[in-house]
């Protein structure tokens, strides 16, 4: 497809199909996505147990969504780097390491936010 061209451009609905296909591929092939989905599911269960309020649910949903988003972007960056070069190039390593670091930073931030949300819900702070 040529950028800016409507020729062979997928329909809006078909674009969602590609997105779902990408998500399923990531779930089937990437361990870290599965770990993050599991942690997200456990967080939802914990939220139901403690009875989070609407604002807390919004914060938890945003954090979970951002972490999954970051991991999907990291996976896509790694795939593009692997496509661009099969050799161990210092710039390829740099790109992959920085992409992974962005997921790490966001995951730590989300964990801190989660601790604060649950501590507040349990009246610990």
TrEMBL record:
GO-annotated molecular function: ATP binding; kinase activity; metal ion binding
Cofactors named for this entry: Mg(2+)
Catalytic residues (positions): 71 (proton acceptor)
Residues engaged in binding a divalent metal cation: 30, 78
Record: residues binding substrate: 71
Gene3D superfamilies xref list: 1.10.287.3610
Gene Ontology biological process terms in this record: phospholipid biosynthetic process
One Gene Ontology cellular component annotation held by this UniProt entry: plasma membrane
Keywords linked to the UniProt accession: ATP-binding, Cell membrane, Kinase, Lipid biosynthesis, Lipid metabolism, Magnesium, Membrane, Metal-binding, Nucleotide-binding, Phospholipid biosynthesis, Phospholipid metabolism, Transferase, Transmembrane, Transmembrane helix
Transmembrane segment boundaries: 33-51, 57-77, 98-122
Compartments in which it is found: Cell membrane
Protein's membrane topology: Multi-pass membrane protein
Keyword Repeat found: no
Coiled-coil region list: none
Record-listed ATP binding positions: 18, 30, 78, 87-89, 96-97
Free-text remark on how the cofactor is bound: Mn(2+), Zn(2+), Cd(2+) and Co(2+) support activity to lesser extents.
Family stated for the protein in its record: Belongs to the bacterial diacylglycerol kinase family.
Name this protein carries in UniProt: Diacylglycerol kinase family protein
Organism: Collinsella acetigenes
Origin organism lineage: Bacteria, Bacillati, Actinomycetota, Coriobacteriia, Coriobacteriales
């Amino acid at each position: 497809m040529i950028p800016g061209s409507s020729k062979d451009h997928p329909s809006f609905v078909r674009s969602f199909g590609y997105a779902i296909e990408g998500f399923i591929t990531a779930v089937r092939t990437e361990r870290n996505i599965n770990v993050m989905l599991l942690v997200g599911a456990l967080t939802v269960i914990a939220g139901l147990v403690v009875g989070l309020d609407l604002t807390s649910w919004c914060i938890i949903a945003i954090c979970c969504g951002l972490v999954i988003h970051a991991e999907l972007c990291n996976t896509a960056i790694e795939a593009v780097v692997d496509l661009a070069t099969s050799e161990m190039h210092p710039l390829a390593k740099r790109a992959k390491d920085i992409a992974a670091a962005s997921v790490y930073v966001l995951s730590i931030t989300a964990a801190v936010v989660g601790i604060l949300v649950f501590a507040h819900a349990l009246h610990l702070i």
